[in-house]
Amino acid sequence: xxxxxxxxxxxxxxxxxxxxxxxxxxxxxxxxxxxxxxxxxxxxxxxxxxxxxxxxxxxxxxxxxxxxxxxxxxxxxxxxxxxxxxxxxxxxxxxxxxxxxxxxxxxxxxxxx
Length: 113
Known about the structure:
Structural class: mainly alpha
Radius of gyration: 18 Å
Strand content: 5-15%
Low-confidence stretches: none
Shape: flat
Mean pLDDT: 87
Strand order of the largest sheet: 1-2
Order of helices and strands: EEHHHHH
Helix content: 40-55%
Largest sheet: 2 strands, antiparallel
Oligomer: single chain
Number of helices: 5
């Protein structure tokens, strides 16, 4: 598949225009976790589905607050690797970890307002 490269010139410099998804991929931002596959009965596996939903919600809230993973992890008092695994949907956080993340995101949202 070939696509035309879009550019813009500002101040005599040429810049490439990327979709936000491509920019985030290149910048190392995790993409939203994939939704789990349905089983033979047409149902989603509960744990995997909940991990995926939580990961997507955390990514959206973190980005809305303008925080990096490292910054949110620092504010919540957890390891950045732990947050990365939660956002990718590969880790089930404890209730205490979810509460720390929620508190840090609420505080960050209050700072923005």
